[in-house]
């Protein structure tokens, strides 16, 4: 079966006065039909840019410099703006963080929905309006018939995001890209929206690319998860494997840094020293090497590509099939966490 | 990644029977949202008021962290502003170390009181003046309170503060935009420490930060509390974060404290239906597939809150008189719960 | 401290000096990328310098009766038939060298322009800061006055103030205070824009957390306004000031052209155009056209600079 979305060796560049920045570097992943793929990373890791690149809405001067993007087997990264516009909305639905950016404040909700339905389907005005009402009911808006003639500002934040979901789903797209769909919402509303999104997409068989910084949301929603770091793939795998048995040192650090409701609250949170490098200052070799306990000479010279690691793939030399080329055991993890470069003393490995 | 170790700081301070450092009583704040007088006269429509904080009481012992948890419209940031003296309360009092923050007194007493209170803000990109060097930002409180007169000594103190929060002493010569979000929050912490305060209000200090940096800042705040004996009022919407810092927790809903309990008790046995709902809404990172309380509805408009118990329209255990009577605080063990479910006569059944 | 680790590579880099900061700044970068702006800046600079050093640059001193001869009157520009190589742009009815009168005239035009912009800026920024930061009734009063003033054209206000001042000073002493009156009247007709812009920015800035942090340590409102808020709202003010400089120069020229400005004994560009206007139809066009062209170039160059500054400081347009 062909993947709904297939991204191969994607590279997104942003030319600036200081040189060309690689916002996304050599990123590959697939989303199977009906699958929810979570894309996580810290701010600046490139998760939203990946989404924009797929829907052809990269903010200039950003551009896709290499690689290919296929939707249902067809290449879409080389399409013109008009063809791309037809694909957006019809074959790819979009949900953004701020519902107000997707809704026109001057039009009634019903008009926006019917207009979108009519651009994608040959229906009578009345049939389209009926469909709009049915959609609003499906996303859980009470008194949907009456609410069709309301304006976006008359809805609460959670209700607006429901309308946006209805709008994204109204052409029955194959793929829904949701970029931080719950970040602007209150905790108690977040869970409702996540559950709704998941239910509707699985009912329709739509694949979902869920972009978020919140590992908790991913753990609840996604089938597989793709962890980005400094525009590169760190780890990709089934969500349970990544959450419970992270294979990349970055994923491992990220998972232990999340405060949770289990475990001893008096224990200090594990922390990763330092911060993600800016795009202009990505170190040679592995982007994570200055913050990594396991780093050795090879990590500073050569960039790791994804190796199979447990149930996942991780871009880390720890998983090099040749044990001789893996990093040596860390000398003192605690020392490294205190900023002392323990890795400097590790014996040089052949590279 | 740091080896985890257990910190002794979150067991209650030894001199527990001493008076609490911070006492908040009957705190209330009403905002007037009415249109200007002339517009009301012409367009009609009466006064519109919003009760952001409605009779909140709590106290914080020295060396403890009191966390206020709530969603938007709960009034948590309004309480923070009243506690530090940025916003006058409509009623009630806040006292720090026995001095009323909003009482009338001379400029001298005011300065002495202000020195004891500091605040760490949510957005590290807005909390540092972009036109000032870090050195000037951190030494401003030192100058304002006239703590160190000699510029050389002052610069040395700024360097000391910077290394205390994990930055380089030479970073003082840079501007805020040269730092990442986490580093800026460290600078904000250094500024807060500059006047040797006893009480620091942390208003969502990590919600603008990425997870790995959030852990750094939370650990830093805990270390500083241990070393300097600080008392925190920690404001957050994230229960998982609160669990890692708080000694006591108060849960706010539409301006009222619906549950207040020692942190361990609140997380082990939440009592108010809203607290249970909030805890259930935290995404399950452990992936244990836990049972959940169904969540319904959204927070009502605080201008027009539901009568009686504000939570009753969303409450799965709603009773007849919930919509008419405001529940008083019932003591259940160490917790105080504002819910009719815990009224004396019902508690036994 | 077990847990503190420097966060990224910028840890120990030395602080940069002000000159390097200026050269590396975005403003300088966008400046060098815009040829129109570089040309207007050069033109503006040359005009300001030659006006400032008019006594050194000008070939003649048009206000020294000893060097003026009525016999030199009405020479056309030097390249025309009957032109005199001593007078590049020709002479006027009294035998004064046009190029020199333009240079001296520009001096007055620019001086009045700069002074009135400065005056408008001080009033407008102060009132805007006060209105925005203090709010309430003070805000309402200031902004309603501004609204009312905005319904009248600036030139009308300037004429009004000018007329009142002229009546109060009397014809003799008026000539001595004319420059001050001009600066006051132009300045007072332009303050509204500054006040509105600054008030708007202050409303945004005053709620930012760095201002709260300053209030927290008990700084006085006045200190916070000038030390914290003002530096952060100066960007738009500089843009308005630059565009206003061009407007102020033109307003001064208009007033002088209408005869309520600078007297002919010490002519500004506007006065020169008015004097020349009388001779336009008798064929001596150069007396009015050259000051006119100078005024147009000056106003255009300054305006283009203002446009660039506005775009460069507004990240949304970049």
From TrEMBL, chain A:
<dbReference type="GO" id="GO:0055085">
    <property type="term" value="P:transmembrane transport"/>
</dbReference>
<keyword id="KW-0067">ATP-binding</keyword>
<comment type="similarity">
    <text>Belongs to the ABC transporter superfamily.</text>
</comment>
<dbReference type="GO" id="GO:0005524">
    <property type="term" value="F:ATP binding"/>
</dbReference>
<dbReference type="GO" id="GO:0015833">
    <property type="term" value="P:peptide transport"/>
</dbReference>
<feature type="compositionally biased region" description="Basic and acidic residues">
    <location>
        <begin position="319"/>
        <end position="328"/>
    </location>
</feature>
<keyword id="KW-1003">Cell membrane</keyword>
<dbReference type="GO" id="GO:0016887">
    <property type="term" value="F:ATP hydrolysis activity"/>
</dbReference>
<dbReference type="InterPro" id="IPR017871">
    <property type="entry name" value="ABC_transporter-like_CS"/>
</dbReference>
<dbReference type="InterPro" id="IPR027417">
    <property type="entry name" value="P-loop_NTPase"/>
</dbReference>
<feature type="region of interest" description="Disordered">
    <location>
        <begin position="318"/>
        <end position="351"/>
    </location>
</feature>
<dbReference type="Pfam" id="PF08352">
    <property type="entry name" value="oligo_HPY"/>
</dbReference>
<protein>
    <submittedName>
        <fullName>ATP-binding cassette domain-containing protein</fullName>
    </submittedName>
</protein>
<dbReference type="InterPro" id="IPR050388">
    <property type="entry name" value="ABC_Ni/Peptide_Import"/>
</dbReference>
<feature type="compositionally biased region" description="Low complexity">
    <location>
        <begin position="331"/>
        <end position="343"/>
    </location>
</feature>
From TrEMBL, chain B:
<dbReference type="InterPro" id="IPR003439">
    <property type="entry name" value="ABC_transporter-like_ATP-bd"/>
</dbReference>
<feature type="domain" description="ABC transporter">
    <location>
        <begin position="28"/>
        <end position="279"/>
    </location>
</feature>
<dbReference type="GO" id="GO:0005524">
    <property type="term" value="F:ATP binding"/>
</dbReference>
<dbReference type="InterPro" id="IPR027417">
    <property type="entry name" value="P-loop_NTPase"/>
</dbReference>
<dbReference type="Pfam" id="PF00005">
    <property type="entry name" value="ABC_tran"/>
</dbReference>
<dbReference type="GO" id="GO:0015833">
    <property type="term" value="P:peptide transport"/>
</dbReference>
<dbReference type="GO" id="GO:0016887">
    <property type="term" value="F:ATP hydrolysis activity"/>
</dbReference>
<keyword id="KW-0813">Transport</keyword>
<dbReference type="GO" id="GO:0005886">
    <property type="term" value="C:plasma membrane"/>
</dbReference>
<dbReference type="InterPro" id="IPR050319">
    <property type="entry name" value="ABC_transp_ATP-bind"/>
</dbReference>
<keyword id="KW-0067">ATP-binding</keyword>
<dbReference type="InterPro" id="IPR003593">
    <property type="entry name" value="AAA+_ATPase"/>
</dbReference>
<dbReference type="GO" id="GO:0055085">
    <property type="term" value="P:transmembrane transport"/>
</dbReference>
<dbReference type="InterPro" id="IPR017871">
    <property type="entry name" value="ABC_transporter-like_CS"/>
</dbReference>
<dbReference type="Pfam" id="PF08352">
    <property type="entry name" value="oligo_HPY"/>
</dbReference>
From TrEMBL, chain C:
<dbReference type="GO" id="GO:0005886">
    <property type="term" value="C:plasma membrane"/>
</dbReference>
<keyword id="KW-0813">Transport</keyword>
<comment type="similarity">
    <text>Belongs to the binding-protein-dependent transport system permease family.</text>
</comment>
<dbReference type="InterPro" id="IPR035906">
    <property type="entry name" value="MetI-like_sf"/>
</dbReference>
<keyword id="KW-1003">Cell membrane</keyword>
<feature type="transmembrane region" description="Helical">
    <location>
        <begin position="110"/>
        <end position="135"/>
    </location>
</feature>
<dbReference type="Pfam" id="PF12911">
    <property type="entry name" value="OppC_N"/>
</dbReference>
<dbReference type="InterPro" id="IPR025966">
    <property type="entry name" value="OppC_N"/>
</dbReference>
<dbReference type="Pfam" id="PF00528">
    <property type="entry name" value="BPD_transp_1"/>
</dbReference>
<keyword id="KW-1133">Transmembrane helix</keyword>
<feature type="transmembrane region" description="Helical">
    <location>
        <begin position="237"/>
        <end position="260"/>
    </location>
</feature>
<protein>
    <submittedName>
        <fullName>ABC transporter permease subunit</fullName>
    </submittedName>
</protein>
<dbReference type="InterPro" id="IPR050366">
    <property type="entry name" value="BP-dependent_transpt_permease"/>
</dbReference>
<feature type="transmembrane region" description="Helical">
    <location>
        <begin position="141"/>
        <end position="161"/>
    </location>
</feature>
<dbReference type="GO" id="GO:0055085">
    <property type="term" value="P:transmembrane transport"/>
</dbReference>
């Amino acid at each position: 079966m062909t993947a709904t979305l297939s991204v191969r060796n994607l590279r997104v560049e942003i030319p600036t006065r200081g040189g060309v920045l690689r916002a996304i570097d050599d990123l590959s992943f697939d989303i199977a039909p009906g699958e929810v793929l979570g894309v996580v990373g810290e701010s600046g890791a490139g998760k939203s840019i990946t989404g924009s690149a797929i829907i052809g809405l990269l903010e200039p001067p950003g551009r896709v410099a290499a690689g290919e993007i296929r939707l249902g087997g067809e290449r879409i990264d080389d399409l013109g703006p008009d063809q791309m516009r037809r694909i957006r909305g019809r074959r790819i639905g979009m949900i953004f963080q701020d519902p107000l950016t997707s809704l026109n404040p001057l039009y009634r909700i019903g008009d926006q929905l019917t207009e979108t339905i009519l651009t994608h389907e040959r229906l009578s005005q009345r049939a389209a309006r009926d469909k709009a009402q049915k959609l609003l009911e499906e996303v859980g808006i009470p008194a949907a018939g009456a609410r069709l003639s309301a304006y976006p500002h008359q809805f609460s934040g959670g209700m607006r995001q429901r309308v946006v979901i209805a709008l994204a789903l109204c052409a029955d797209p194959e793929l829904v890209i949701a970029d931080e769909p719950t970040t602007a919402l209150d905790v108690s509303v977040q869970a409702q929206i996540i559950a709704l999104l998941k239910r509707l997409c699985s009912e329709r068989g739509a694949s979902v690319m869920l972009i978020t910084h919140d590992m908790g949301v991913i753990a609840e929603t996604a089938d597989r998860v793709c962890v980005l770091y400094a525009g590169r793939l760190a780890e990709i795998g089934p969500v349970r494997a990544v959450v419970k048995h992270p294979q990349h040192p970055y994923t491992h650090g990220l998972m232990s840094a999340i405060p949770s409701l289990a475990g001893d609250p008096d224990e200090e949170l594990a922390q990763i020293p330092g911060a993600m490098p800016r795009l202009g200052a990505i170190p040679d070799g592995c982007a994570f090497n200055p913050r990594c306990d396991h780093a050795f000479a090879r990590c500073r010279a050569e960039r790791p590509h994804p190796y199979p690691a447990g149930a996942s793939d991780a871009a880390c030399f720890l998983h090099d099939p040749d044990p001789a080329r893996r990093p040596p055991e860390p000398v003192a993890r605690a020392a490294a966490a205190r900023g002392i470069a323990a890795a400097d003393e590790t014996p040089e490995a052949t590279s | 990644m740091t080896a985890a170790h257990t910190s002794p700081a979150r067991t209650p301070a030894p001199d527990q029977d001493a008076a609490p450092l911070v006492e908040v009583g009957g705190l209330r704040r009403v905002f007037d949202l009415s249109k200007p007088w002339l517009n009301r006269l012409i367009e009609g429509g009466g006064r519109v008021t919003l009760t952001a904080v409605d009779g909140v009481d709590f106290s914080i012992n020295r060396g403890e962290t009191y966390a206020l948890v709530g969603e938007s419209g709960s009034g948590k940031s309004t309480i923070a502003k009243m506690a530090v003296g940025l916003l006058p309360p409509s009623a009630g009092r806040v006292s720090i170390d026995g001095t009323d923050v909003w009482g009338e007194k001379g400029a001298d007493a005011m300065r002495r009181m202000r020195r004891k209170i500091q605040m760490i803000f949510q957005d590290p990109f807005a909390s540092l003046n972009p036109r000032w060097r870090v050195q000037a930002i951190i030494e401003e409180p030192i100058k304002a309170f006239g703590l160190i007169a000699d510029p050389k000594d002052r610069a040395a103190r700024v360097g000391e503060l910077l290394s205390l929060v994990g930055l380089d002493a030479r970073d003082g010569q840079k501007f805020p935009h040269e730092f990442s979000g986490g580093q800026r929050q460290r600078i904000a912490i250094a500024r807060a420490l500059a006047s040797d305060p006893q009480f620091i209000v942390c208003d969502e200090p990590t919600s603008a930060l990425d997870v790995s940096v959030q852990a750094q800042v939370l650990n830093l705040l805990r270390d500083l509390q241990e070393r300097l004996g600080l008392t925190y009022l920690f404001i957050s919407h994230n229960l998982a974060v609160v669990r890692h810092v708080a000694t006591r927790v108060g849960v706010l809903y539409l301006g009222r404290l619906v549950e207040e309990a020692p942190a361990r008790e609140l997380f082990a046995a939440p009592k108010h239906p809203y607290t249970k709902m909030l805890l259930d809404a935290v995404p399950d990172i452990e992936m244990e597939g836990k049972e959940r309380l169904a969540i319904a509805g959204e927070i009502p408009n605080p201008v027009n809150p539901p009568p009686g118990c504000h939570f009753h329209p969303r409450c799965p255990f709603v009773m007849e008189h919930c919509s008419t009577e405001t529940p008083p605080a019932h003591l259940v063990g160490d917790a105080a719960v504002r819910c009719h479910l815990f009224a004396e006569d019902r508690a036994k059944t | 401290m077990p847990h503190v680790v420097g966060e990224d590579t910028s840890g120990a880099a030395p602080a940069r000096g002000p000159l390097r900061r200026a050269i590396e700044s975005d403003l300088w970068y966008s400046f060098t990328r815009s040829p129109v702006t570089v040309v207007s800046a050069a033109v503006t600079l040359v005009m300001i310098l030659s006006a400032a050093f008019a006594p050194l640059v000008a070939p003649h001193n048009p206000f020294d009766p000893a060097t003026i001869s009525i016999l030199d009157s009405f020479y056309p520009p030097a390249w025309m038939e009957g032109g005199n190589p001593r007078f590049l742009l020709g002479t006027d009815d009294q035998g004064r060298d046009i190029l020199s009168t333009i240079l001296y005239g520009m001096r007055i035009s620019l001086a009045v322009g700069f002074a009135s912009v400065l005056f408008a800026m001080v009033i407008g920024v102060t009132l805007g800061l006060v209105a925005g930061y203090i709010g309430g009734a003070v805000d309402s009063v200031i902004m309603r006055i501004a609204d009312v003033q905005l319904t009248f054209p600036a030139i009308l206000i300037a004429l009004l103030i000018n007329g009142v001042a002229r009546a109060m000073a009397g014809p003799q002493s008026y000539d001595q205070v004319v420059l001050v009156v001009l600066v006051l009247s132009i300045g007072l007709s332009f303050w509204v824009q500054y006040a509105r812009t600054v008030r708007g920015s202050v409303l945004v800035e005053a709620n930012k957390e760095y201002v709260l942090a300053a209030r927290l340590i008990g700084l006085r409102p006045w200190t916070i306004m000038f030390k914290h808020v003002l530096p952060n709202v100066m960007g738009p003010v500089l843009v308005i000031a630059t565009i206003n400089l061009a407007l102020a120069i033109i307003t001064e020229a208009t007033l002088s052209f209408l005869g309520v400005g600078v007297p002919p004994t010490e002519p500004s560009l506007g006065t020169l155009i008015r004097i020349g206007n009388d001779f336009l139809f008798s064929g001596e066009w150069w007396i009015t056209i050259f000051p006119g062209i100078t005024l147009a170039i000056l106003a255009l160059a300054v305006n283009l600079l203002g446009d660039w500054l506005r775009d460069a400081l507004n990240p949304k347009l970049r």
